[in-house]
Amino acid sequence: MKILISGYHNPHYLTVTEYIERAVRQLGHEVIVFNDRDHLIPGRLRKRWAPLQSISVAAINVNLIRLAERTRPGMIVVTGGHRITRGGLRTLIRKGFRVVLWTTDLPQAEDLMRTTAFDYHSVFCQGTEYVEIFRELGIPEARWLPMACEPQIHHPVQLTEEEGRRFGSDVVFVGSYYPWRADYLKYLAGLNLAIWGPGWEKLPTDSPLRAFIRGAHTPPETWTKIYSASKIVLSVHIQDPQRQFNVYQSSPRIFEALACGAFVLTDRQPDVLSLFRDGEHLVAFSDAEDLRQKTHYFLSCPEERHRIAEAGRQEVLNKHTYIQRLQTLLSVAGPQLLA
Asked: Are 275 and 312 found together in one domain?
């Protein structure tokens, strides 16, 4: 079957969109690629005058409709959904296309999906917070479908001595800067800590965490080396900065780090603890002091750390790959198309 996948592509590194495309191909389907951020008008101009944003989004929808008409896919999978308008979606449906939504981001007040989700044939959500939102809006069939790992990319890496020194640490955090993340990491400032990710230059000039910044933008091939070289991979999940919405979803990095054989120490994110067992597949902390205590404990207990890491790796490979996610999506959204 031909499947058109609309999503975001970054020219510098792989995104979840490419992982989804790879899984669809591995399942034997033909993939038609559409970049939903291929704007007609540059961002600097769209920010200056709001109507230009609407014009550019309208052009994206026209291009998607034209691509669908030209290629005639059996299904269209919209990942994200922020730039597919109700008019564009209804045009696709009117022309006979089966269109499926898979949210991949945090909730936002201006989400188009609050009005468009009603029209999709099926709705899947990266996080259960979106399931709550859609069900409150009157879409009871919205389903939870979290992100996953791609085992051909996310796997333990054999490192050279130089790579071990460059990428290794006792504790590592990979992710963007947010003040609440820094508040947690301050409790680990006395350890062999490494911080990778964008935005950490925003730390106060006197912050002790500045000494632990290793790099900003890191591609997946670097993440796998970092996860493979580090004793503890720390996860502090992103939250809505305006505190308007609950955020329950599991970061894709949970799946990716586990697939790399890492020992993951995570905050008590609801979706994570629904997918993995605390103390068996990973370990969760409740607050900054609990983080500090558990970090010290597991650094001193390598055998227990390795046992949990291996169990986590087996669990994620057995149940949480993108192929498995796409099998679920296709079986729910288009069983008659696969017959």
From this structure: yes
pLDDT tens-digit map of 165-191: 999 999 999 999 999 999 999 999 999
3-state secondary structure the chain: CEEEEEECCCCCCCCHHHHHHHHHHHCCCEEEEEECCCCCCCHHHHHHCHHHHHHHHHHHHHHHHHHHHHHCCCEEEEECCCCCCHHHHHHHHHCCCCEEEEECCCCCCCCCHHHHHHHCCEEEECCHHHHHHHHHHCCCCCEECCCCECCCCCCCCCCCHHHHHHHCEEEEEECCCCHHHHHHHHHHCCCCEEEECCCHHHCCCCCHHHHHEEECCCCHHHHHHHHHHEEEEEECCCCCCCCCCCCCCCCHHHHHHHHCCCCEEEECCHHHHHHCCECCCEEEECCHHHHHHHHHHHHCCHHHHHHHHHHHHHHHHHHCEHHHHHHHHHHHHCHHHHC
Write out the residue range of the structural domain in which residue 168 sits. Answer: 161-319
What pTM was computed for the model?
0.94
Same domain, 312 and 332: no
Over residues 96-131, the pLDDT tens digits come to 999 999 999 888 877 888 899 999 999 999 999 999
